Amino acid sequence: MDIGKKLKEKRQEANLTQKELAEILHVSRQTISSWEVGRTYPDLDVLVAISELYDTPLDDLLKEDSEMVKNITAKVKKSERRKMTNIVLGLLLLVLIGTSLFSAWKRHQNNQANTYGLKPNDLIESTWEMVYAPTENLVQSNLFFDSKNLIIRNKYAPGAIKPNIDVNDLVESSSEEWSEMGLEEGMVHYEDLNIEVVEDTYIVSAHGYQQRFERLSDSVIRDTNGTEYFKVQSSFSQKDFNTLKEQLNE
């Protein structure tokens, strides 16, 4: 016996009309009729309500109706897929909201000045040019900041040794040490830029780079090597940075 006939039989045993049953289940009478003639099937939650109403195990209602079992199985799988999709979309939305909130918080923090008047935004998206070096070996040096990257361009006199590096200390690791101090010759790109302010000093770190800059004035800073830089540009666009990176890759 298919489920439509069983539903009709159980309704009649309970002395209920289609209209009365429809009111109990909060559906239309036509829906009850459609179930009983086998045109459509009730949803799983409705079947559970019917089994409770008639005090009949759900298995008894579904027994011998393979089409109904297939239909319910397909609906359950579809419901599970929809549920999983909703969970994934919810997690993605949370990540997006979290990222947006963190970015907004980071922008706010970067624009907060300490008691010395320093804030990370003083360096972000700016360009600096060397105006003084404690040695004549370094003839040119520039700092290019955007919000996430730093590019340093150094030029040394021919055959010169980097400043503050003792010739007796030259070893194989010196190149890495120079890079970490921002002394590497040529143009070097550092990612994952982070800027903090402590009193009158900017602490600049990035992947493979660490340096402290003391602010001497609104437009002049000095690193721990004694090199002083003058701010020549207060805005440094992503297009400008991409142009420099293209030069690096040439």
Helices and strands, with pairings:
Elements: H1 3-13, H2 18-25, H3 29-37, H4 44-53, H5 58-62, H6 66-110, E1 127-132, E2 138-145, E3 149-156, H7 174-181, E4 186-191, E5 194-198, E6 201-206, E7 209-217, E8 220-223, E9 228-233, H8 238-249
Antiparallel strand pairs: 1-2, 1-9, 2-3, 3-4, 5-6, 6-7, 7-8, 8-9
Helix pairs in contact: 1-3, 2-3
Question: How far apart lie the N and C ends?
Answer: 78 Å
Order of helix and strand elements from N to C terminus: HHHHHHEEEHEEEEEEH
* Count of discrete domains: 2
Number of strands: 9
Mean pLDDT: 80
CATH topology tier name of the largest domain: Lipocalin
Structural class: alpha+beta
Residues in helices, as a percent range: 40-55%
As a whole number of angstroms, the C-alpha radius of gyration is: 36 Å
The strands making up the biggest β-sheet line up spatially as 4-3-2-1-9-8-7-6-5
Unreliable segments of 5+ consecutive residues: 170-174
What global shape is seen? rod-shaped
Question: At the first level of CATH, what is the class of the largest domain?
Answer: Mainly Beta
Organism: Atopostipes suicloacalis DSM 15692
Domain HTH cro/C1-type: 7-61
Protein name: DNA-binding transcriptional regulator, XRE-family HTH domain
Transmembrane segments: 87-105
